[in-house]
Design brief:
By secondary structure, the chain is α/β, with parallel strands linked by helices. It has one domain: Acetylglutamate kinase-like (Carbamate kinase, 3-Layer(aba) Sandwich). The strands form two sheets. Strands 3-2-1-4-8-9-7 form a seven-stranded mixed sheet, with helices on both faces. Helix 3 runs antiparallel to helix 4 and helix 5 packs parallel to helix 7. The longest helix has 26 residues. The chain is globular, with a radius of gyration of 17 Å.
């Protein structure tokens, strides 16, 4: 069985740099989980994290210095997205290298093209402008027959609103796609900080894929989700 994880860049590479300690523990736990059942395979789709934010913010500042609007318009949004995609590629290459013999194949950069998956772990990056790496994760879940996708980020649950801005925001255990999409909208903006990409959400709903949002650094909780045990997180679908 193939499992798909959208691993937020904020977990792999926060602003201060790649989190080698997290990746070390993550690989060790993943290896134990894989060895328990030879039929298990996992796809890790890696986000842009700190490098993406740094370069996107630098480009916005450059535009400000020129007296231009810091974002807006298809060309500028595409430029920002390409920077984010480049960040996902270097993060994905780093994660692939840390997986060693578990990951025998090249990083997937196009989820719609030919894919070789001969190892136990496959690593993917962002693809093209117009959406985040969450969308790539949905396409890979669809392609490899995974009915549930794990979205691991720096939040433990989806909230009714941004808890940093709204003290009355409440955590959500379960929510339908209709309700969730009403919260996040239908448009993608480069660098958007949302629980799950609106474009990916539309595709997941269309294909009947359930998404579980959980805290990425809580590795025992991630393993509990993979094993179908009780967990802390939000289920969308």
């Amino acid at each position: 069985m193939t499992y798909v994880l959208s691993l937020g860049g904020s977990i792999v590479a926060p602003p201060e740099g790649p989190d080698t300690r997290f990746i070390h523990h993550f690989r060790a736990s993943l290896e134990i989980w894989l060895k328990a059942d030879s039929s298990r395979r996992i796809i890790l789709v890696i986000g842009g994290g700190g490098p993406a934010r740094a370069y996107q913010n630098a480009l916005r500042e450059f535009w400000r210095l020129r007296g231009e609007t810091p974002s807006g318009g298809a060309l500028k949004d595409a430029d920002l997205d390409w920077l984010g995609i480049a960040a996902t590629k270097i993060n994905a290459q780093f994660v692939k290298a840390t997986m060693g013999e578990l990951c025998a194949d090249d990083v997937v950069t196009d989820p719609s093209g030919p894919i070789v998956f001969t190892g136990r772990v496959l690593v993917a990056s962002g693809w093209k402008p117009g959406f985040s790496s969450d969308y790539d994760a949905v396409l890979l879940a669809e392609r490899f027959g995974a009915s549930t996708l794990l979205n691991l980020s720096n939040i433990a649950k989806v909230y009714t609103a941004d808890p940093k801005l709204d003290p009355s925001a409440r955590p959500i255990d379960k929510i339908s796609w209709e309700e969730f999409r009403a919260m996040v909208g239908s448009a993608w903006k480069p660098g958007a900080n949302l629980p799950f990409d609106p474009i990916a959400s539309a595709r997941a709903q269309e294909k009947g894929i359930t998404v579980i949002c959980a805290a990425g650094r809580n590795i025992p909780n991630t393993i509990a989700i993979l094993e179908g045990r009780s967990f802390e997180g939000s289920t969308i679908g």
